[in-house]
Amino acid sequence: MVPGGSRGSAWQRRGGSMAAVAMTTWQENMAVEAAAETRPAWADYFNDEMIDFWLGEVLWNQDMAKFTSYGVGGCAEAIIWPASVRELSLLLKGIRRLNIPWRLVGGGSNILVADEGLKGITLIFGKRFATIEVVGEKDGLVDVRVEAGCSLARLVNWCAEQGLSGLEFAAGIPGSVGGALVMNAGAWGGDISQVIRSITVMDEYGECCDKEAGQLHYGYRSWGEDAGLIAVAGVFGLQRGDKAAIKEKCRKVVAARMKQQPQEASCGSFFKNPPQGRSAGELIELAGLKGKRLGGAMVSEKHGNFLINTGSATAHDLVRLMHLVQSTVNEKFGVLLEPEVRLLGFAGGN
Q1: How far is CA 324 from CA 115, 134, 289, 331, in A?
Q2: In which band, very low, low, confident or very high, does the pLDDT at 289 lie, cut at 50, 70 and 90?
């Protein structure tokens, strides 16, 4: 045994620990410096000028793949989570004054972000912007106000627990209530327009107003409003019903969805159904495109209207596949399929 060996080993272990700590500290410092270097040029200006409008957290240079169902996309220069209507209003007023580009995304279940990422500010309604409250009840009809950041799944489950019927069709639909309001989400013969009573909207100046159902121009996968308007909350008209029956209906809807639709990463139905004739999925299948693959993106073999990420797809792969599907279906059937998925960060997009 080497004299002092045990002490030497202990010293080496302590020295190793100290070295590890030093290395960790160095790595953390490097990470901080790297993050600072990747902040946009307007970051410091934003922090200084927005002091009267926003004192909350801003996450810089964040990978958008973490916030989307597709799990692809580059970095957003800045992400902010407003927690209330007032915070959102102040943010929009400040952002407009600074002339910084911005966009709002919901639950990330219906967007495809470019590999190059997103310039400016990306606003996301999080869990704090997600209250559910009963605001009225008469003759078995219950008005429920829901903020845009609430997930549709949470709302459906809450309604089932309360014995409120009307949203069973939405069981299993991913995404947020805000996205569902704007896209008129629907399935199995039901959609949001059938149960909505009013929507609180905010314009780009941060001003709010309520729009009653009769003032809305709902259509297929659209609420018919200006692109500059934001849905911040909706009031749903629901019926009192049997809790067990409502839960059972939700269970059957989810089971049917699981049986018919692929479970790989996707944004659900990629294309809108044409106004007449066959559905998008049927056209894609008849065109012989099911199973077609480009890079890590593939047309699902289970459902033609699902473009899936097999695990290694990039946004570029998915967009190339989208264009291939569109051109092939158009050549064979004279129908140009329109994306239902919102493309962000691409030429011509936001």
Answers
A1: 19, 47, 9, 11
A2: very high
Is 129:121 a contact under the CB 8 Å cutoff? no
Residue 145 tokens, joined: 């106000």
Which residues are the active-site residues? 221, 269, 340
Classify residue 170 by its DSSP letter.
G
pLDDT tens-digit profile of 90-120?
999 999 999 999 999 988 999 999 999 999 9
Q: Which residues contact 342 (CB under 8 A, 6 or more apart)?
A: 110, 111, 112, 349
What fold characterizes domain 134-260?
3.30.465
270 CB burial (10 A radius; 0-12, 13-18, 19+)? buried
Core vs surface per residue 232-266: b (16+ CB within 10 A) or e: bbbbbbbeebeeeebbebbeebbeeeeeebbeebb
Contact 147, 159 (CB under 8 A): no
pLDDT in tens, 269-281: 999 999 999 999 9
State pLDDT tens for residues 39-73.
Answer: 999 999 898 889 888 888 899 999 999 999 999 99
**Topology annotation, domain 280-344:** 3.90.78
Per-domain residue ranges of the chain:
43-124, 134-260, 280-344
- State how beta strands 132-138 and 141-147 pair: antiparallel
pLDDT at 16: 47
Architecture of the structural domain at 43-124: 2-Layer Sandwich (3.30)
Q: Alpha-carbon distance 182 to 185, whole Å?
A: 8
Q: What share of the chain is helix, strand, coil (3-state, %, to 5)?
A: 40, 25, 35
